[in-house]
Request: fold
Amino acid sequence: MKLRKVLIVPKKSTYQIQAVEHKEANFLKLLSEGHSSVTRVKLAHEEHVETLQHLLSSLDQRGIEHLEVVRADLEGRIKGVDMVISVGGDGTFLDASHHVDSLPLLGINSSRSSSFGHFCLASLKNIDKVLDDIESDSIKTIKLLRLELLLNGKVLPDLVLNEVLIAHSNPAATSRFIVHLRGMSEEQKSSGIWVSTPCGSTGSMRSAGGTVLPINDQRYQFIVREACMRPNEKWQLIRGILDRKEEMLFVSQTRTGTLFIDGQHIEHHFGLGDELIIRASEHDLNAYANADVNEIFV
Reply:
């Protein structure tokens, strides 16, 4: 693929936000004292800046036009470029994915000391090779399943790449929902319900006891967190793996329920009587990623 124009979506490092922009007094004090809570912050910032600068230089040398929009300033769907490049970690990749329809997305891990970079095919060490391989078609994108949410019949704009948590807005409160799947219906009380794509199966879903799936699998799964069953009560809809053609329906019995999409940044109210349908989206994410990356968790 010949790259003529790309959009770079970089994160802002913690150091840049708190020390440079906001000059947060307590943060600067802890930094000056060498406190353990902030010891890695300056190093991570320096690594991020070095990686971003190297990418910009590589694009200039190739004659590739580039625009730059920090992740917090992204709005709407990205258009008019050949590829989107996230520079940060998995959170930056996730944020960028919410603004991408069919465009290919490449993740660059900009700080190996602070970020795992599960989605990131590139890092400072191999940026040039990855760009060469993309332009020579030596590597291809893989399709990553995303989930679509219909809240009271309206499709929400945010496609789920990792997972959605259906829960009370207060993490200490009990969540109450009616779950419908495969002709079955159950009223449940719990700490919430995870619904995860294969991409998200190595994160919160795995921590909750779910199944790790290959990142390019075409199924998704759900698991109930801390089910509050009475003595001798048994639920059938505690966990399961669904084909991409299947749908789940949730009815809220919680006045202040919330949908948390791919982390803490995207929320939607899911109040008493609201209905939510979760299904696989027709718009898979085209990502330059390692198809075997989830195997290390198996």
The mean pLDDT is 96. The two ends are 33 Å apart (CA to CA). The chain has six helices and 19 strands.
